[in-house]
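The records we work with from here on pair a chain with its fold. A complete example follows; check for yourself that the lines match position by position.
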Amino acid sequence: MNPDGYSASEMMSIVAARALRDGITCFVGIGLPSTAANLARRSHAPGLTLIYESGALGAKPDRLPLSIGDGVLAETADAVVGVPEVFNYWLQPGRIDVGFLGAAQLDRFGNINTTVIGEDYADPLVRLPGAGGAPEIAASCREVFVVAEQSRRSFVPEVDFVTSVGYGTGAGDRERLGLPGAGPTMVITDLGVFRPDPVTRELVLDQLHPGVSVARVREATGWEVTVAEHPATTAPPTQEELAALRALIGQSDDAGGEESS
């Protein structure tokens, strides 16, 4: 818990929510992305359209869903379609403005690994949940926001397995591969925010959260971090943002307790 009374995950959720603009479409996953998207819709972006992989289009849940199959998504959606239609009609043609992704590993060019840890795919040190729809999200959304806690184990020079392509090995790779989306335009961590260099596409530390130093970010990163000339400082969460976020999470906890009893 920060001395000012908020946690690292609350900081990440609020920064991610702030980045979502009113009137756009957002492909939402469960966890922090769903928390951030629903917080944004309840505050500064009431016209934000939430699309869940299960086929819920324009969902307006009154609490955080427990999974992409949570009934509250279908009950509050503008429409419910099949999963193939979500991918074939909405995602792959580039109709989604922002996609959210998490990462077990992330490298300096924004490539994501959620498949295996270890060099031997057949016999890895850890087998992770896998790709799901992440490769298509990374390829086709107009831009991608990545949210991940930062450490040398997760922010590595080169991912063990490329589950979702960021910028490959650098400038020009997305174009060479025929990927239509812009790629990861924002990586939000518990320490700060990275954005890609417009020329090299390497992730650059562009913003520090309150109380975080560049030295601390370097200690938590597996590559030599490039720092913006004048990195910004993230505005701390307001009391209004914290209250709205905690109410949203509290509603979800209550719902989970009711369903499990």
Observations:
- The chain has a mean pLDDT of 93.
